[in-house]
Amino acid sequence: MNRRHFLARFGSLPALTAVPWLAACGPARPLAVGIHPWVGYETLYLAREFGWLPASVELAEGKTLGDSQSALKAGKVDAACLTLDEVLVARAAGVPLAVALVFDVSAGADVVLARSNVRSLADLAGKRLGLELNALGALMLSRLLAAAGLPATAVTLLDLPPDRQLEAWRQGEVDAVVTYEPTAALLLREGARRLFDSRQIPDTIFDVLALRTDRARDQNAAVESLVAGHFRALGHLQTNRQDAIYRIAARQKITPEEVQLSLAGVVLPSLDANRGYLGGQDLRLPRAAKTLSALMVERRLLSREDDLAGLLSSAWLPRDVV
Amino acid sequence: MRATTLILWLCAAATQVWAVEPLRLGVLAIRPQPLAMAQWQPLANYLAASLGRPVELAVHALAELDAAIAQNRVDVLLTNPVHYVRLQHQNGLAGPLVTLVNKESGHELQAFGGVIFTRADAAAINTLKDLVNKRVAAIGNDDAFGGYQMQALEMVEAGLAPPQGDRLLVTGKAHDQVVETVLAGRADAGFVRSGVIEAMMREGRLDAERIKIINRQKLQAFPYVSSTRLYPEWPLAVMPHVNDRLARRLTIALLSLSTNGAPARAGLPGFANPASYAAVENLMRRLRQPPFDAVPEFTLTDLWAKYALWITALVVLLQLLALAGVGLAWQNRRVRQARARLEHIAHHDTLTTLPNRLLLGDRLHQAMAQMQRRGQSLAVVYLDLDGFKEINDHHGHDVGDELLIAVAQRLKAALREGDSLARIGGDEFVAVLVDLEQAEDCAPVLDRLLLAASDPVTAGSGQVLQVSASIGVTFYPQDDVDADKLMRHADHAMYLAKQSGRNRYRFFDAAEAVAAA
């Protein structure tokens, strides 16, 4: 609890003691959820558009993954849509996070794009590579270099988050970028070629809803509605695909065909699959977390491995089919 | 059309030696018959050529199409999604072979939506909510998917009742008529299929400035304005009796339309691999369209599954209430018993348990009223024990009390049924004898009372005690005074009896009393 919240709660003490049963359900602050453009999070925008998110949920939109991460660390949001590796980074920084939902598993939508003169992975040697300098970027880079058989020193790295990549690409500042949808679709339009993507590293990049457990206690209902809203929108995406695609296209300002393509790059786990991932029956997620943790220590993105205690929770998943 | 079929059939017969049954293509008509025939005839021709057999086209309104299907006069069906889902559930229609691709305006669309519009100058209508209680024009309701049901679902999802009955103006077959109806002011708003507005504008029949779109969806890449979510275009399916081989050849022919340059031939539609119609089914369930119009059977198990917590809470609450009720009844009983005890104490003499003066007063009043009604008499008998004070002084109160109890029981036993006896003081008793026809009737009772009082009593300690009684009697209504006076008159007579030697009774005599006074 930060100072401001402590004071706010302290200030309201007399009122609460006067009406003790209201203390538990007092005027709830909305649940702020950090979110940034990524095809896997589109379900939340769909849910908002159809009015399936309650007023107690507020989407705090940033431009990049880094925005969500810093909002989380600064305590401005109670939850955020993050990649699993970023969850580990935040936990290492002392933010008590738990994964409440798996939005998607990247299977092609995280991608390394290069100019047409880079014909193979080996051609990357000596080239300028733009990427967001975070855990996900490092992860993609390490897997890329391993696949290319190149040492880390073989490429020149530029700090270039996806929201600045299109401009840098047009200015000729980079030869290749580590990126993800929907930016990838825009770069492909500019003639970029697909060199490497998350299909080569299956079950590694998980996009999840991470929740501050120290704040979730007051906001269980909002979190449950948020998660239920996601699954309802996922149902819409599956049963009324055309409608969903046009809506996503309008929001991301890409064509319906590009939406189809970027959706093809992610696996969207159902409620049952989520129960498996978060309930401990499906070990792919805990294993991915363990592998990531070790890799990140190796790459000095983490000072020590995460013990993964309390990382995954199926407590906020709906009990019934949405 | 018949001529075309004949020619096609002749061509087919010429190329294939055996005669083949024509393939019957049934299409739902949403435009006037001649227009619809013209629209779909190129497709029928194309299929005849591709399959090498005649194809007979029939366009029908919904009811006619259903009738044709019932008579097995349709092999291949092209209809709107809602009709298709209904047939799927009713006729066991298989999944669609392909989904129509709408190529009307240079776009290839596999989805369509519904539009809600009003006149641009209708200042009071801006959102879905404003449509409530307004008159809405549409081409139909139950058979119009993009022309009514899609819009109805948006309203239902927003918690509003879709227009029905008087509030729905059904214009008939063409969507254009809906637009004209609204522009002419015969309806406040209109529902049409997506694309209609743009087509009318293109043809110069509608000025964009004159209408306003309600609940516009953010679907920039979709070339038409839509007020609803989009749904997949019309499905094409074969009826269950069509064999698999033909269905496969049909699918190939239809999908080839999009790729082999055939679209160059005028008026041919395109087809894509089949879409999922789950969203359409969901809409029908939500709007309770047939066959989903039956209210689902709600069993006790469902009830339990859904409301287990509430039911449990209710049962516990009822049990608590029942428990509280039982507790209350028990308390109530105790209070009533205590009250009865108190009342008994208030109206009875504690030593002999005989009624006391208070209760006697009540009974006397009642008896007086009763005697008056029946025309009978009662006697008030005032009885005082002779020599009781001496026994009390000599043997003590305990023995005196014993004597009183024994005498009281005997006196009571000496009375008739209906008579009552009260103890009104230390050794004074009053009896009320009722139902007397004449004064002499009470003589035997009075004799028995004298005997009862004078019969010796053996006390607990062994002493034999004996008293006697002096009795004064007065009669009502012969002595026509109130209850208090009757008692005093009887008392007075008793006094005279005691004076004249005890162990006897005297009747009250008014004249004598006056004389004495």
Provide a descriptive summary of the structure in words:
- Chain A folds into two domains: 3-105 and 204-298, D-Maltodextrin-Binding Protein, domain 2, CATH 3.40.190.10; 110-200, D-Maltodextrin-Binding Protein, domain 2.
- Helices cover 43% and strands 18% of the residues of chain A.
- Chain A is built from 14 helices and eleven strands.
- Chain A has helices spanning 3-11, 13-18, 42-49, 65-73, 84-92, 135-148, 162-170, 183-189, 213-216, 220-239, 241-252, 256-264, 271-279, 284-298, and strands at 31-35, 57-61, 79-83, 97-106, 110-114, 128-131, 156-159, 176-180, 193-197, 206-212, 266-267.
- With 517 residues, chain B is an alpha/beta fold.
- Chain B has three domains: 2-107 and 233-286, D-Maltodextrin-Binding Protein, domain 2 (3-Layer(aba) Sandwich), CATH 3.40.190; 111-231, D-Maltodextrin-Binding Protein, domain 2 (3-Layer(aba) Sandwich), CATH 3.40.190; 357-516, 2-Layer Sandwich (Alpha-Beta Plaits), CATH 3.30.70.270.
- Helices cover 45% and strands 18% of the residues of chain B.
- Chain B has helices spanning 2-15, 33-51, 62-70, 81-91, 145-157, 175-183, 196-202, 244-256, 278-286, 300-347, 357-374, 388-395, 397-414, 443-454, 483-499, 510-516, and strands at 23-28, 55-60, 76-78, 98-101, 111-112, 114-119, 136-138, 168-170, 189-193, 211-214, 231-232, 235-238, 270-272, 377-386, 420-423, 428-436, 457-458, 464-465, 468-476, 504-507.
- In chain B, strands 2-1-3-12-4-13 form a six-stranded mixed beta sheet.
- Classes of the chains: A alpha/beta (322), B alpha/beta (517).
- The A-B interface holds A 49-51, 236, 238-243, 246-247, 249-251, 253, 255-256 and B 110-111, 113, 157-158, 217-222, 229-232, 275-276, 278-279, 282.
